[in-house]
Automatic annotation (TrEMBL):
Protein name: Hydantoinase/oxoprolinase
GO cellular component: cytosol
Residues annotated as domain Hydantoinase A/oxoprolinase: 197-478
Organism of this sequence: Hydrocarboniphaga effusa AP103
Domain Hydantoinase/oxoprolinase N-terminal residues, every copy: 5-112
One GO-annotated biological process of the protein: glutathione metabolic process
Family matches, as InterPro entries: Hydant_A_N, Hydantoinase_A, Oxoprolinase-like
An example molecular function term from Gene Ontology annotations: 5-oxoprolinase (ATP-hydrolyzing) activity
Amino acid sequence: MGKLINIDNGGTLTDICVLDGSTVWRTKTLTTPFDLSRCFIDGLTKASKAIYGHEDLVALLASTDHIRYSTTQGTNALVERKGQRLGLLLTGSLSRESLRHAENAAGLFDALVGDRCVTLDLSQDAEALEMAAVRAINTLASSGAHRVVVAHGGAERLAQETRLKRIFLRKFPQHLLGAVPLLYSHEVVQDEDDVRRTWTALFNAFLHPAMERFLYNAEHKLRLAKTRNPLLIFRNDGHSARVAKTIALKTYSSGPRGGMEGSRALAQHYGFEHLVSIDIGGTTTDIGEVASGGVREERRGRVENVEVSFPLCNVVSVGVGGSSIIQCRDGRNIEVGPQSVGSAPGPAAFGLGGTQATITDAFVLTGLLDPATFFGGDLRLDVERARAAIAQNVAQPLGVSEELAAARMEAAWVDKVAQSIHAFTKVTPQTTLAAFGGAGPFVVCRIAEAAGIDRVLIPGLAAVFSAFGLGFSDIEHRYEAPLAGADDLPATLDELTRRARRGMHAEGFALEDCVVERRLAISGAGRDEELPLPETLPPIASGERLSLALNVRKPIAQPALQGRFGSASHAAVEAGRRRVVLADKSQELPLYRLEDQRAGTRAAGPAVLEEAFFTCRLDAGWQFEFNDAGDVLLSRSGRA
């Protein structure tokens, strides 16, 4: 069996994890937002050096079976409202008001569409309709729309949207320069709920262009380097597929879903009944939940809290991360995010031209982060630049010292994460908090205390954990079609099977080598559920509709988890002392490097835990245990 490569592209950093049996190599590289394929290839090249001792991308790809890729770019774009300007052409029963009045949708509609919305009357004669349709598109294009979504409300959506498509193909040939791309809601998803289907199409249109350009560019560069197999895109349903087989919207929160797959595996391995995860990167904190061995998922997922047609892992993304901009505008209150400096220019301490204050700058100033060891020693931090950014944006407006300003920045940052945890789920005495991502472990003890949680798990691969979690996914596709009744079941099943056979062949697998699950979906008349296909179809009430689905999965190799807690007890090995400012007072804390510890190592805080790509402040009242898998368990003294 060859190597498996997992890549998680974040707004600030791109993580690479290479698995070969029980051996894992990991590395990070700065995300290059101007060309995401650059950090993609840079990361792979850097990983090849870690494996072979010198850069050899061709050798790495030649020995690799699968490359799985996830990204938070779509999530970050929506959080920061940075992306395509969309136009919307509505017909039938749909209206601007019906979309804005959908739950939680008004502000998002105004941000993505705004005034670029036109309603078209389809009752006109053919000639008048053509003229009105052309005027509508010209109006949307002249108002700045980069892409236009066409959506019809009503049972005839397929026929009416197809009718308009024929008109637009004649009037706006796609081969002409300047033609505005038109997307039709029925081509994105077949969903009887008009508002939900339209929102799904809008989100997909917002995310599609940038994802398409980058992914095909990355795949082209992989082919030039002689890759053996197509690039696989990890989706937010926990599975993977080729670029050409992936809908852009299904990349939304795919990075966090990778973390959730890893969290699920760890929860099952360690027997945690209820695990809440926080994946804190540069731009967002992604919060998820594992209960009774399963990832929390919704049949109709939510994007920015607006319902969409696809199932989604229930992960909430909050605009707070290691690179989130922190400022004080009114002389009293500190604001955290949602805007982020990303990796370019990055936190002021990076020395790349950034002048905004971030929590990373605060931890550099207070001494938690060591400029000599941060990012594996590959990125030197500038303390004075961090101080200057904090002074200008926070300390001076508050009228306090830079050190006290840093303490207040930390308090505001922690409070935003803790409040988001409480808004997402109910914390119980059985809850364990899993902290990962480059910024997840920073001050996780304080986050846990604020959230009322007494036990924290930091995976040994915390800094690249979402990338590692991709390794627990298989290749899967879903094939679905309407089902009129029991008489149509054999023919519908045969057609879906033919589609599945063709689709999996395109992935490089025979259908006979895949796991096939038959599902029956029932919707309409207030009902929306899915169940395994029964031997006899259930009775259907008036207004309800059936559809048949095949979930086809090709299992591929997954990591084998090891490690247990409580098997031994050893004193921790100190690597020295680190001077850290806590609440405006300087203290010398013991420094424990995780690579120096052996299984069963224990020690109490206050202290600093550190490895190549993450740092954790172990606060007073907390203790840590290190196990043979490299995982770290933190517990509040007397409450474990």
